[in-house]
């Protein structure tokens, strides 16, 4: 079963994502971080296979954390989960920095799981 | 379910890989000439004209083309010709993917049709604003997308009332606010009563009941809804050529007397009726 870390300052989004992940048979949620800095710490301790991370967070934002994560951990696959996915520049920047895909908010469970499976 | 552009739609659906779309972006960057580059290639201006105009842009908030005309470097007919040539030769992301053999022409047409269907519900409807509001198209889009998201994300039946200018933001249980910056400066505010807050929470959390949820979670769901709406406003605005950045959402607990609109701002109020005794308002606090 693949381990997934959820990174989002919103408690409700984190709860939705954790539910989608834990209700599946292929993935398990190993933690929730509320900003980019926390994500880097939890990635080190929990060693997830996949990180689902928001872009727009107070403190260290998602793109800044993405820059560090791809350097610190070559194995982890990062998917951005964001309401800004439809903004072309943000989408391009995230992919160029190493994000594997971008999930737009609002999201559907099927869509999230399909994207995680294809990583 | 959200506002997207075609490249994102293809990657999200797994039709093309991340690597293919990045390669297609590179081809677009090479082939799609900027206005100055196109005017240069058509022989209407020189590189030193471009440098001169770029320097002038430090002092004048004008687009390059308009400034080239104002400075007498090009005439308006030449500018129109340059813009027309840019449009005629523009390489779209789908075409770039076909060039790269990541898609066939038939596949491109098929996915374009699917994309149009996916985005059909986000085609803007006209919303009437009071006369004389600057950047009215953006605010019409903001209100229109808010209404569409209330239908699609919250699954609520509602009736809207005509937009009007207010001098005080009326009190309510809570307001979720998010700052918009970039080509416009404004605060997007959704004001909700207790009943509406629970309706939002049920939809966002996808729960039958939210009676046992904490205040923190209930407020968070309204902030998240505002975040989703504003992200989609930023996406729609970028398609219209306007850059909008969004900050993190915050919660406001307004005093009983409401919140006076600060100097230098105008406040647009869009009342939204969702049921007896419940209050929901979209408020746009726009810096003038």
Describe the protein in words.
The complex is a heterodimer of chains A (119) and B (288). Chain A is an alpha/beta fold and 119 residues long. Chain A has a single domain (2-117), classed as Rossmann fold. Chain A contains five helices and five strands. Chain A has helices at residues 11-23, 36-46, 62-72, 88-97, 109-117, and strands at 2-7, 27-33, 50-53, 77-82, 101-104. Chain A has a five-stranded parallel beta sheet with strand order 2-1-3-4-5, sandwiched between helices. The longest helix of chain A is centred in the first third of the chain and has 13 residues, at 11-23. Chain A is globular. The two termini of chain A are 14 Å apart. The model of chain A has no long low-confidence stretch (mean pLDDT 91). Chain B is α+β, with helices and mostly antiparallel strands and 288 residues long. Chain B folds into two domains: 6-121, no CATH class; 127-287, Chemotaxis protein chec (3-Layer(aba) Sandwich). Helix content of chain B is 47%, strand content 17%. Chain B is built from eleven helices and ten strands. Chain B has helices at 6-12, 18-31, 35-41, 47-57, 64-70, 76-89, 93-99, 105-119, 136-152, 194-205, 215-239, and strands at residues 159-160, 164-166, 168-169, 174-182, 186-192, 244-246, 250-252, 259-260, 265-273, 280-287. In chain B, strands 1, 2, 4, 5, 6, 7, 9 and 10 form an eight-stranded antiparallel beta sheet that branches. A two-stranded antiparallel sheet of chain B has the order 3-8. In chain B, a hairpin with a 3-residue loop joins strand 4 (174-182) and strand 5 (186-192). In chain B, helix 2 crosses helix 7 (93-99), helix 9 packs across helix 11 (215-239) and helix 10 crosses helix 11 (215-239). Chain B is globular and about 65 Å long. In chain B, 34% of the residues are buried. The model of chain B has no long low-confidence stretch (mean pLDDT 90).
